[in-house]
Amino acid sequence: MITKTEVEEKSRKGGLRTMPFIIVNESFEQVASYGLQPNMIIYLMTFYHMNAATGASILGIWNALSFGLAIVGAFVADSYLGRFRVVVIGSISTLIGMVILWLTTMIPQLKSSPCSQFQHVCNGTTPIQLAVLLSSFGFMSLGAGFVRPCSIIFGADQLEKKEDPQNQRLIDSYFNWYYGSIGISTICAVTVIIYIQDRYGWQVGFGIPVILIFFSVSMFLTGSPLYVKVKAKESLFMGLVQEVVAAFRKRFTNIPLIDFDDSYQQPHESEILAPSNDFRCLNRACMIQDPQRDLNPDGSASNRWSLCSVEQVGSLKALFKVLPMWSTGIVIFVMTRQFPFAVLQTKTMDRHIFPQFEVPAASFSVFMMIAYTIWIIIYDRVLVLLSQYTGRPRGLSPVIRMGIGLIISCMSMALSAITESIRRKRAIEEGHGDDPSALVNMSAMWFVPQYALLGVAEAAYAVGQIEFFYSLLPKSMSSIASAMATTGAAVSCFAASVLVSGVNWFSSTRGKTSWLSSNINRGHLDYYFSLLTFLSLLNFLYFLVVCRLYEPGNDGSSRLSHEAEEKECAYRLLP
């Protein structure tokens, strides 16, 4: 390992030369990963004989695991292995998972044969076949969880040079290039890769991501001698756990009614002498019971699992205070996890833009990405105008933008229910009730408005939520904002999977056809989208209640963050 001075010197000489290796690695990982997911529901239904609900549930759990393991990846990188090793492990794990998935397309024994229209009973999927499939998902989830939270920060490590006042501009430029490449990569994934899968089949469509990941890992390892590899240190997550444990171990200790300066542990340079009165039970974590036992000669805590500082307890309290607002995002992100059913819908419709060009069914999510990007660009351009009327440097407050996102998401789900009702009615009128693969005389472009609304909703809410976290949490916890967004995505994926399974079970009781039947012409996706609309409306009402928990005028600037008025949102915290 190297010292801090050596890190900065090596960063000055070789930081810029390492950027292509890091950006290419993450870009190719994005192309490969996002290129596999949209069409995966079709692959599962065709070769593993899963119904639509089961396939959607498995994909939801896969995504939940990928986002959830990002927390594990960040913790392991910060506390034990360092970011370079974690990125390498994640990249290799992704490669292994994709190779296994690719092999299922080439080895007949690893998947079931597709059913023909003349077969009444299809051969079921064996446990070994299912285990191989799920193992590929597991390796790819581990890879995504290790690469995504560490790759971007690892790139910033290469440019770190605190004594240079112009260095921050260089880092900001790096983040812009990084996210720009990720955006382009994602669009390429849901257009080019999906088109190849539809045109040339699964073997070629899954083989190209394998080649991209192999090239990505090779290029990243090639740059290894040039990298700055910062030594792992204690993780902020571990500090939060220590504070909870310290408070729990002292749960029977009485809290004094009057705070004395020498009752609590604080660093010498700290200006905070006593903890706040909210969440008083957590104040026990920083209470000094026996100075001889609890403190070192320099005044620091002898055991951090028994005694924490006042500032640390304040950080934990700030985290608890943003949890209610964090929970309002679960439902809106559940809305964005319904794409597997949208693929089944658009696959039965006319997807031609021009007579000679047909948009792949799984590529329609690109309209959501375009709307997402356009909203951010437009809003960023009108910030100056809005700030003149609102008095806020970021225009509308984060809470208002979050509320706008929730309302638009409700409109998107309502439009989805209406559009599906029309599509289903037309399919039955044309005699396609028993043929879910028949083409309905209806343009799939009718689905574009609901995708656009959902993209705008996600952009308004996600960016507003990150700004809310960033302004409410202490500056030392800025990385927690990204972690909370990632955790919210994991919870929403898991909630979407549970919701699909529950609706499928409840709607199919007493021999009835499930709303989420693989034959969408017999099912009722319109009812399901109506249910999501109702849940979105309830979530908005819950959001209004949560807003009442915060002080008036506290929607984006907080008494907990003394620099909140001076800080700008770190858009690089977006997951």
TrEMBL record:
Record-linked Pfam families:
PTR2
Segments spanning the bilayer are 53-77, 84-108, 128-156, 177-196, 202-228, 359-378, 399-418, 451-473, 485-507, 527-550
The terms describing its cellular component in GO are: membrane
What is the top-level taxon of the source organism?
A: Eukaryota
Q: Which UniProt keywords apply?
A: Membrane, Transmembrane, Transmembrane helix
What InterPro entries does the database record attribute to this sequence?
Answer: MFS_trans_sf, POT_fam
Localization per Swiss-Prot or TrEMBL? Membrane
Q: Is Transmembrane found in the keyword set?
A: yes
Q: How is this protein situated with respect to the membrane? A: Multi-pass membrane protein
Per its UniProt record, what PANTHER family does this chain match? OLIGOPEPTIDE TRANSPORTER-RELATED
Family designation: Belongs to the major facilitator superfamily. Proton-dependent oligopeptide transporter (POT/PTR) (TC 2.A.17) family.
Name this protein carries in UniProt: Protein NRT1/ PTR FAMILY 1.2
Q: Which organism is it from?
A: Capsicum baccatum (Peruvian pepper)
